[in-house]
Design brief:
The chain is of the alpha/beta class. It contains 9 helices and 9 strands.
């Protein structure tokens, strides 16, 4: 396995916003684990106009580790724009989105990577609710909002996958490039990307992943904004799916 891994570069994209308290330990933890597995990797930290010590700390890490690069979100402020910047800058065969706050485990990065390298899947999605004990200190209100939202998405998009809003996923870079243009500027991009994958029929695997709450995270949770932005993305993806079905029907008629 390790011989084949060396030929499949992994790009870790980490969007940041005011993560100065934890970003150094978060990145170093990932570096240590990936080097242990002898994985060819790069870490791209995309900062969303932080005004704390985030940029300085990443510059410090990148000065002693050539695998780490920092980029500034060149567009307007927003998680989605940072993620898009990271996708465009990445040079690996596979791209994994990882949160900066250590809520995502390096062990799961390895599991995702081995799953996608050792298979013919286009993506590997995590499911935090597949087994008991995977989630640590998930906020009570957020849990019910998460479960209701994900079950709703699974029903209307006719998929068995029920953790669509989980941002922690790995994709082939070619698949992500095919999904452009991405219209989400904010956190709703974590829904837009997997929904497009599902609607366009890409092959994906689902494996359990852990999640832990972190007190250092700066949260800008605004339920009103979340509902609006997520709803717009869902409608956008439903429209895309409708036109894809219409196109497929036309092709089927031509085949006859």
């Amino acid at each position: 396995m390790k011989t084949s891994i060396l030929n499949n570069k992994l790009s870790i994209v980490i969007p940041t916003f005011k993560e100065g308290k934890i970003i150094e330990s978060s990145v170093n933890e990932i570096i240590t684990r990936l080097k242990t597995e002898m994985i060819d990797f790069e870490i791209l930290v995309i900062d969303d106009h932080s005004n704390d010590q985030t940029i300085q700390k990443i510059k410090k890490i990148s000065s002693i580790n050539k695998n780490v690069s920092i980029y500034l979100n060149s567009k307007s402020k927003g998680f989605g724009n940072s993620l898009i910047e990271g996708i465009k800058k990445s040079t690996g065969k596979y791209v994994c989105f990882v949160m900066a706050d250590q809520s995502d485990s390096p062990e799961d990065i390895i599991a995702y990577y081995k799953e996608i390298v050792g298979s013919n899947f286009d993506c590997v999605f995590g499911n935090r609710w597949e087994d008991k004990g995977l989630v640590e200190d998930y906020p009570f209100f957020k849990y019910y909002l998460n479960r209701i939202g994900n079950i709703f998405l699974a029903i209307i998009f006719r998929t068995k996958y029920s953790d669509i809003t989980n941002s922690f996923k790995i994709y082939k870079k070619t698949v992500l490039s095919d999904l452009f243009p991405l219209v989400s500027n904010h956190f709703s991009i974590t829904v837009e990307i997997p929904l497009k994958v599902i609607c366009r029929g890409y092959k994906f695997s689902v494996i359990p992943n852990s999640w832990r709450n972190n007190e250092h995270t700066v949260s800008n949770l605004n339920i009103g904004n979340i509902l609006i932005t997520y709803s717009l993305v869902i409608v956008y993806c439903l429209i895309e799916r409708f036109f894809q079905k219409e196109e497929q029907l036309k092709l089927n008629k031509l085949d006859k």
